Amino acid sequence: MSARNSCTGTNGTVLHCNTPKPAYVWTAESSLTEFIGSPVGGYDKVFLAHFILNWCGFGLTLFAFIFSVCTHYNRITDSMAAMATGLAFLVLLAVFVILIVVAYRVIGLTHSHNATVKGSIGSATWLILGAMAALLLATIYYGLGCFFRAKKARTYEKA
């Protein structure tokens, strides 16, 4: 989610690195264009959407965390936290789909130009998948905690 860049080189020696930029469009890299023989364009807005959606998912998750910790776990705040984590899950699902689609399109494009090239999705994709699973579990936890909670006894009912 931070600023990204790319470096190029040969035989394990780095020759050049670009300046880090947020929402880095790695499909516009000159080394990829040289390898494929044609530019891979049209992904600027997709990478910007990916960058923004990552931060939206983080913000929703942070909102749910702060809400549940600072309000001492009552039914209304648990339902708000369940909605926030559910929405964050959907946002990260969109981020995951964007990552998978772009990665496999570029891998397929490079493989069609050179059959010896192999590509794989990076560790950031698995990090998003883990965050999605955690948000799904948090949504289930908050939802169950909201609807299947033992009722508190009132002070006049105890006597």
Automatic annotation (TrEMBL):
Pfam families: SUR7. The chain crosses the membrane at residues 47-69, 81-104, 124-144. GO terms for cellular component: plasma membrane. Keywords: Membrane, Transmembrane, Transmembrane helix. This is Uncharacterized protein. It comes from Mucor ambiguus.
